[in-house]
């Protein structure tokens, strides 16, 4: 444990997990927003939107996240010159958020779409029958019920997102996996300690998160 | 009841694949009239009812409501639907909303009415159908009969020009049928225009102005209830009545 009593090392550790936290937070928002929009597109009556949603899911769900993150860096930033922040580290962070969001959105979309299938057709019919538009029916009646039905699977997706955030280390952000590599490089005799501390930190945060989502899923479940 | 027609169906045809579910149907419902549609299963009664607010699009023919042809889609169609209440066999109350929210949602979101006024009206309607004390519960906590009465209140909250009932009592336990029919009967007495698809012959007898008998997608016979039940003209209607009225 004395590895972490060194203030520099402790700082590397804390900073690493703070980046993971920030990546997860922004990635969650991005993935939920994009994923919900994609799900709406996939059930919409407009063929172009449906095709767009399907294409997105098929492309991003079947591409390794490492490749997507690389593309954000080498494609968007290096080649196309897309700069999201003047600060180099923040720029890498935001590129990572983009990659995580577009990738995770594909899974969120499919989870919500399966949730939509759990909402009886009569719910949408009743909404249309009182004069709601397609959009009102979707946003007020169908999606709220679909969302409640998929809290547990969404939890799994977000836990995966948190762990996937370590991949942003490949484009130079000093997040936890980079931090771990850094510490192991300079403390070769403490490999196991360092590894278990890092892995343990993920587990300690994510295990309760999983139970939390399970509890939330029960609480929010729509009684029929 | 006036002579002025509120709902007019002319030469309406509808197919489900090769199945001709509505076969050249002509029907006119006057303002304030209560029309009960009966007939064997699969005769197209429900489809007819659902075609009137275009939950089922038709293949040919015209349907006019209050002098205007049914809009095909979009906001115009939504506006028309807001003027035609519908009560479903399976209630279809919004499962994630309380009883009160179910009744208030349409007026607030569709009509953009003020929440305070709508709440008052909604509570009055819930009291009227006898569920005022359950306003904060969720649909799943209510019995079928109670849910269906809420569904009627939800439809009434939109202050519709007509109400469509698609087998409103078919999913109910027998002891709950009466409470729903009571509400429907009182609406009929007050002059609400109603199209009711049902198997409740008692309701047809005492609440309907006219009984419409359908079979195989065709509108076979229509007459005032006393006349229809006493002297059905068509063989199919005689056959149908002999099967249901012998018990």
From TrEMBL, chain A:
Superkingdom of source: Bacteria
The entry lists its GO molecular-function terms as:
transmembrane transporter activity
The ABC transmembrane type-1 domain covers 17-217
Per the record, membrane topology reads: Multi-pass membrane protein
SUPFAM superfamilies according to UniProt: MetI-like
Query: What transmembrane ranges does the database entry give?
Result: 12-38, 59-80, 92-112, 150-174, 194-217
Give yes or no: UniProt keyword Transferase: no
BP terms from Gene Ontology: amino acid transport
Q: Which UniProt keywords apply?
A: Amino-acid transport, Cell membrane, Membrane, Transmembrane, Transmembrane helix, Transport
Q: Which ranges form a coiled coil?
A: none
Signal sequence span is none
Chief place of localization: membrane
Give any Gene Ontology cellular component.
Answer: ATP-binding cassette (ABC) transporter complex
Please verify whether the record's keywords include Transmembrane.
yes
| Cellular compartments annotated | Cell membrane
Any Pfam family from its record, for instance, is: BPD_transp_1
What family does the database annotate?
A: Belongs to the binding-protein-dependent transport system permease family. HisMQ subfamily.
Protein name, entry field:
Glutamate ABC transporter, permease
TrEMBL record, chain B:
InterPro entries in UniProt: AAA+_ATPase (IPR003593), ABC_ATPase_HisP-typ (IPR030679), ABC_transporter-like_ATP-bd (IPR003439), ABC_transporter-like_CS (IPR017871), MetN_ABC_transporter-like (IPR050086), P-loop_NTPase (IPR027417)
In which compartments does the protein localize?
Cell membrane
Q: Which residues form a coiled coil?
A: none
Q: Name one GO molecular function term.
A: ATP binding
CDD domains hit by this protein: ABC_HisP_GlnQ (cd03262)
GO CC terms: plasma membrane
Q: How does it sit in the membrane?
A: Peripheral membrane protein
SUPFAM superfamilies, from UniProt?
P-loop containing nucleoside triphosphate hydrolases
Pfam families xref list:
ABC_tran
- What is this enzyme's EC? 7.4.2.1
What Gene3D superfamilies does this protein's entry cite?
P-loop containing nucleotide triphosphate hydrolases
Q: Which residues form the ABC transporter domain?
A: 7-241
Q: Which UniProt keywords apply?
A: Amino-acid transport, ATP-binding, Cell membrane, Membrane, Nucleotide-binding, Transport
Q: Which reaction does it catalyse?
A: a polar amino acid(out) + ATP + H2O = a polar amino acid(in) + ADP + phosphate + H(+)
Which family is this protein grouped under? Belongs to the ABC transporter superfamily.
Protein name, per record: ABC-type polar-amino-acid transporter
Q: Which organism is it from?
A: Paractinoplanes toevensis
